[in-house]
Specification:
The protein is mostly helical. The chain has helices at 8-19, 28-35, 40-51, 56-78, 93-104, 108-132.
């Protein structure tokens, strides 16, 4: 496996700056980094849980996860790996199953590449989060 940067650091910075003014949102970067260890389908699915919450603060966190996933999909497309990118409602069980199946059915080498890139992407998100967090805004989670 050869390493390419794919602009990960720049994209991570863009995402953190986009979401930094929403209370508690960019702190999700740390949770994203941890979630990578559980696989692509779990990382993808976390947006669904948060977007279905009633509190605006939780929805904002879900939007950050969704934006991160969509950015990751574009990055992986540059690497020649096509990942599901359509928006899915947390109430659409059939569509959730379809997306999870697509992720599980990726060739093992593609899964490994995706997880390696996602790990580095999340590391960049965490780094920018630590640099740009505002007291009382992005540092509570």
């Amino acid at each position: 496996m050869n390493w390419k940067s794919y602009g990960l650091d720049q994209e991570a910075q863009r995402l953190v700056l986009k979401h930094r003014d929403k209370k508690g949102v960019i702190g999700q970067s740390h949770k994203m980094r941890i979630t990578v260890a559980f696989g692509l389908e779990r990382f993808w699915g976390e947006q669904l849980r948060l977007l279905e919450k009633e509190k605006a603060e939780e929805k904002a966190k879900g939007e950050y996860w969704r934006d991160t996933w969509k950015s990751f999909v574009k990055i992986m497309l540059l690497a020649g790996i096509k990942l599901p990118q359509e928006d899915v409602s947390g109430n659409n069980t059939a569509k959730i199953q379809e997306v999870a199946a697509k992720l599980w059915e990726l060739p093992i080498e593609d899964q490994r590449i995706c997880l390696a890139v996602l790990t580095q992407f999340c590391d960049s998100l965490v780094w920018w989060t630590q640099r740009y967090k505002k007291s009382g805004v992005g540092d509570d989670e």
